[in-house]
Amino acid sequence: MPRLKFIAFDGTEFDIQADNGSTLMQNAVRNGVPGIEAECGGACACATCHVYVDEAWAEIVGPPEPMEEDMLDFAYDVRPTSRLSCQVRVREELDGLTVRIPERQG
């Protein structure tokens, strides 16, 4: 089971053990990580699960697909490593992944 680290805007860290195949969003919601609103429930139809992937992990996580890229237009303070957490599936290669949560969601 890969371990993930979510860092809330206030600096609070949440270390989570995640199941392969689940999404970052599902794990954040399941573990009460603040700042991940997930209004659409993971359908890539909003931008309320926006996170910043740590620079060291950006290449491993990979870039957003076109549909996600379009939804990121609605996110707050988009950066080069921005992703919608509902679109990032947990896999063994992501063990140790760190993501930060923006000040607010779109």
Task: Tell me the layout of helices and strands.
Elements: E1 3-7, E2 13-17, H1 24-30, E3 50-53, H2 58-61, H3 66-72, E4 82-84, E5 97-100
Parallel strand pairs: 1-5
Antiparallel strand pairs: 1-2, 3-4, 3-5
How would you sum up this structure, described in words?
The protein has a single domain (3-100), classed as Beta-grasp domain (Ubiquitin-like (UB roll)), CATH 3.10.20. The protein is α+β, with helices and mostly antiparallel strands and 106 residues long. It contains 3 helices and 5 strands; from the N terminus they run E-E-H-E-H-H-E-E. A hairpin with a 5-residue loop joins strand 1 (3-7) and strand 2 (13-17).
Strand order of the largest sheet: 2-1-5-3-4
Distance between the termini: 31 Å
Order of helices and strands: EEHEHHEE
- Class from helix and strand fractions: alpha+beta
Strand content: 15-25%
